[in-house]
Hints:
The chain is α+β, with helices and mostly antiparallel strands. It has helices at 13-16, 45-58, 121-132, and strands at 21-27, 30-36, 74-80, 100-104, 107-111.
Amino acid sequence: TGRMLAVPDNLPAELQKRAGVFVSLKQKGHLRGCIGTFAPTKNNIAEEIIANAVSAGTGDPRFFPVEADELNGLVYSVDILSAPVPVKDPHDLDPRKYGIILRRGHRSGLLLPDLEGVDTVEEQVSIAKQKAGIRPEEPVDNW
């Protein structure tokens, strides 16, 4: 419906903090929507989850909006991002354990960790560059 849920008054301390959040929706094992924020845009993690869940279901341009009769068949996952840490050597990365943010000027691309089909740092970097609109041969400003 695109409506935002109210945030409960008695939030656990973990959800009162601020962080970037990604919400992914899967249907029968296939991605149905995914929207997130690199950095916090709301008052707390709970608000960030709610807003991104609604956006994942209604605003991911790769998919038609989720219909009400699909809701019970979806699997929802939430990734809460920690503060990015610069990496000097890309070989220090582990795509199963760490996500990646690549920047080149005003363009940036983020890839979450432990994605199916992303088994190497090279694949992770390639996909993040593609998402950011950074050509494969272009260097990146930071990791």
